[in-house]
Amino acid sequence: MRFTVRNVAKNASMRMEMAPDVDSSEVARAAAERWEISGFIMRNGYYLVPEGSKLRDHVSEGDTIDLISDPRNYI
Question: I want to staple 56 with a disulfide (CB 3.0 to 4.6 A). Which of 17, 20, 46, 65 is the partner?
Fold first, then answer.
């Protein structure tokens, strides 16, 4: 499955290709390594992508996943 991951704070994006049965935490780990960030929420459209869930349950071919800073990290 191919999709785009967009870092909203840094206005940057990257294309990814992963198997549908991969955990969403793999996407989070790849993004954290690429942009040296932590503490973010993954959103696909209007819906949050829970960490540890399977990609096939929340992401479709060609989707864009937004990474948004988690406000709980600033409290």
Answer: 20
DSSP string, 29-71: HHHHHHHT--SEEEEETTEE--TTSBHHHH--TT-EEEEEE-G
Q: Does the global pTM surpass 0.70?
A: yes
pLDDT tens digits, 45-55 = 999 999 889 99
Identify any residues that bridge with 15 across adjacent strands, giving them in sequence order: 4
What is d(CA 52, CA 28) in angstroms, rounded to the nearest whole number? Answer: 10
Give first-to-last CA distance, the chain, whole Å.
36
CB-hemisphere CA count at 13 Å for 56? 4
Spatial CA neighbour of 2 closest among 17, 14, 12: 17
